[in-house]
Amino acid sequence: MRKFILKIIPVILLFFLCTFCVQAAPVIKINGLEFDNSGNVVIVNSLGKVFPSSMQTPEDNDKSDKIPKNLITKGILTNPDRIFVDISNAVLSGTSRTYVLKNSHITSVKISQFSTNPHVVRIVFEHDKNFHAGDFSIFANDRQIIFKLSNTLISSEKFKTVYNNMTSGERKAQEYEATTYWSEFKQKIQNIVNVSNTTPNQSLQINTTSDYTYKDVKTDEKDGIMKSNFHLAKVEAVKNGLMIKGSGNLSLKSSFMLDNPSRLVIDLENTVVAQALRNKTYTIPNSKPLVSNGQVAQREILRVGQNNQTTARLVIQGENAKEYRVVVSPDLQGLFIAKRGDILNSKLTQTTSEILNYTASHSAADLDVVNITFSNPVAFTMFEENSKFYLDLQNVADLNKYALDVLHKNPDFKGITAQKIATEKTRVIFNLNSSTAINAQVSPDSKEIRIYFKKRSQTQTKETPPAKKEEKEEKPQRPSTIKQMYSVVIDPGHGGADVGATREGVYEKDITLEVSKLLEKYLKKQDVYTHLTRETDKTVELAERSDFSNKINPNVFISIHVNSSVKEDIIGLETHWYHPNSLDFAKIVHKNFASSRNLSKWETKDRGLFQSKFYVINHTNAPAILVEIGFISNPFERKLLVGNKRQEEIAKSIAEGIMEYLKSQK
What is this structure's pTM? Predict the structure, then answer.
């Protein structure tokens, strides 16, 4: 009998263990809360799949047969006024904490492990008397739980910007069509519960035991506070590239190249980088080693940083930096970075899609809108190159030639073409001109892409017809002397949160501003009209700089910068141009700036003229150049660049070159 009991005990234990495992519901781990910059959207930062299969009121909690896998309940409390939300089968990572909100009727949000058997995480929203309880709503799908605190916010079903080179003023174009997306994605989002305005009964009161205490902590990036639309939280190596992951709404800006060393810069607008990732460097898998003096220095790398308060910057450095592309994942929560060849040869998603239709229209006199719809969510790449905008669809097998032919019946849209670039990969090409601004948007389910093309106003040239010249003559006239007819826009590089290159506590932005002000002084002595894109230490976007110049329509545009290199021994002067109408201007300024006299006096080198596609000299209509006045990375040159004597001499020599060019054009 004893032997029988000893044999049966393990069986009984195994039975109970199996029963427990079957009955145990999945547990999600909650790391904290994330807030958007308005303080009106709160995202639960969680790990694990969420199962919000049904909802209940708190009064039903004792009915175990109704408890779903992840029950989300809500109640209202008074004295003080607050709303609480309980999430069952959830475990809070770390201690209880309090988030203090600004510029919101919600004054604070508290999160704690309310109980451990069962596991319940409680979130309490304390609010002032002006908060409308009817505005509070809860949304959830299998990936996340979201609290919406205001009905004035854009609905989650709206199209989201994923690529943009428009200024804030130009982006108002998208307001011409406030289309709401009502696809199947809307059914996936469940409004868990509507706030009840009835006074809660005693069963809704907060548990005052030790299970419900709060530890006030300082709110910072580590708690996942989002000051923007996207929170970049993770970088991981995958086959042939790197995967960038986060939460929120991704929005890319047009990328650009920098030289010495070669690097590709990718900016994410309205994005905050997690504190732990800032200034980190990652080796890119399958990348080509960098070789210096016969030695392998390092492979191509990715640097991650917070360029300014709302812009994240990804920098790919290496000999083949220009070969890299960025793919946006179908869930809009990740970026895949790899060489274009590796992207073409890789299957990036298991779902294949097809183009259902192309449509295009003139939404306004200066605004074209193109819509492309798909059968399934798409992964895509967007970039500008050679006066064209490219949309590479990474999982589209059929480009739908018939629908494209229908679109081409309108002669205004014959510039839109499509072609197969690899198996299950399609490229859509849009012809551009230098004055086109772009804002591309995608639906929440990645089944529709909408692209706005806004025509920027053209500045007038010397070949302007007489009638238009007469219109200009109606404006207030400048003084009649030859000298006073000149106008120059001076662009001090970087500024504000964008410090530029830096070494030993010396910032590029400070040197460029000082030299620009001295250049302005010398030009004013020649009775030249001068305009600075910034006169103080403030952040100015690249598009704002070129737009500023295009509105003024100056004779010339010059951007002042300080160079940098990973090698400290590199020194010298450079002048960059891009459009053909800028070449003569670049030659004359560089001849004066990098004269043999200056090279000898400054103990530096002439590194020459370069045709470079820097944003400001590419998007500025006037003859435009960018000068690099020395290397901040070289200790000797850096010491001279911060001195007033060298700055005065640089400004004077550049001014002489500008005047020589201006006089040669008369």
Answer: 0.45
